[in-house]
Amino acid sequence: xxxxxxxxxxxxxxxxxxxxxxxxxxxxxxxxxxxxxxxxxxxxxxxxxxxxxxxxxxxxxxxxxxxxxxxxxxxxxxxxxxxxxxxxxxxxxxxxxxxxxxxxxxxxxxxxxxxxxxxxxxxxxxxxxxxxxxxxxxxxxxxxxxxxxxxxxxxxxxxxxxxxxxxxxxxxxxxxxxxxxxxxxxxxxxxxxxxxxxxxxxxxxxxxxxxxxxxxxxxxxxxxxxxxxxxxxxxxxxxxxxxxxxxxx
Amino acid sequence: xxxxxxxxxxxxxxxxxxxxxxxxxxxxxxxxxxxxxxxxxxxxxxxxxxxxxxxxxxxxxxxxxxxxxxxxxxxxxxxxxxxxxxxxxxxxxxxxxxxxxxxxxxxxxxxxxxxxxxxxxxxxxxxxxxxxxxxxxxxxxxxxxxxxxxxxxxxxxxxxxxxxxxxxxxxxxxxxxxxxxxxxxxxxxxxxxxxxxxxxxxxxxxxxxxxxxxxxxxxxxxxxxxxxxxxxxxxxxxxxxxxxxxxxx
Lengths: 249, 249
Known about the structure:
Oligomer: homodimer
Protein name (chains A, B): DUF2520 domain-containing protein
Number of domains of chain A: 2
Domain Pyrroline-5-carboxylate reductase catalytic N-terminal (chains A, B): 3-76
Helix content of chain A: 40-55%
Domain DUF2520 (chains A, B): 120-242
């Protein structure tokens, strides 16, 4: 059983690494960006190509959602299995005569950040039992946490992840913008941030809420609004409004 | 040197514990809520009162910002030192003939969650050098991370903390609302959330951003908007708008 990864971005490079580290026979990384492909190929000692897609049993398309459809047309092998790694798109976005599937790793991938692949939940959807079993077998080599998921459910998993990860990271960026503007080292906030996350391992987030909005501390809320402008002020108002709604304040 | 803590909420209970654990002579916890005071007093083996405020060298007012002014009037001792623990209010909010100060712990406190006090940054402001030194001495017994901070700077530290902690926790609440609505266990998202935070210990948050907004993935953004309503939709739009602005998309 031989697999190919298509793509050279964050997801592709981590999936390639996870496969190679766990003995999955990755025979090629394929894509457009030869510089990025070369880095992956050299690190993992795997062939790469920008021109000739290798013949494989399973193709993993690890490119941005906007490109999946176009990229999927490059695969001409009819008796192969193709999986995309999108949280939001159905497996039917893939265009070809091969068998279609989805192989969604619930994690945030940045190239320069090492990951413990064992803990990443993988969500799998396939056309038939045999393909599902094959994808489970591969995912189980990488992770301890492999599940089946319909497209309908996967959409909501991805949406939840956007709130719990992408938007959270953006709040960190905005927080750093504020502290940078006053020459306050962002490192001061790391113990607070770590504790914010540790807390929800033990307490429901709704019960862990602290801060001026949940106390309906009008004086502080007004003071803060005076210190903010533009998108930061919009975020401040939107989040406080939502907190007040949640706690019926 | 004897100290009293006024208050029985999250901050008061953790401050009392941090003081007792580190050998600071806490002679009383004082407040209105006898039930909560009793819990703190029994756990730490410290006297409590709802009526007679003990005579002490330093009083720590650990109550919500809205109540600090009123509570400060209860302290009639003229040669004492009084500190509030608010991130946003000036020390001059305190009303009395005593010396005024601020003693701000940068952390999120929930009663049921144990904390490593050593890592909490404390920000101190006082009227004179002697008081500053005294408060540093106390804070240094609790934490490895004690600094001076003007009110002006402290306001921005608190504001940054609201973005990095309070709003982040609310995003976790909203994320859980979405996953609960589809009967998806919120535990699935904990490795993702942990990694989101581990990442910013190594990478600037601005460089760690992932997700559909920073990829300007219009198809996914539209799909997600269709799945959301009310405050969740407002947050979705506000955050995506801010992400696009930050990355000039």
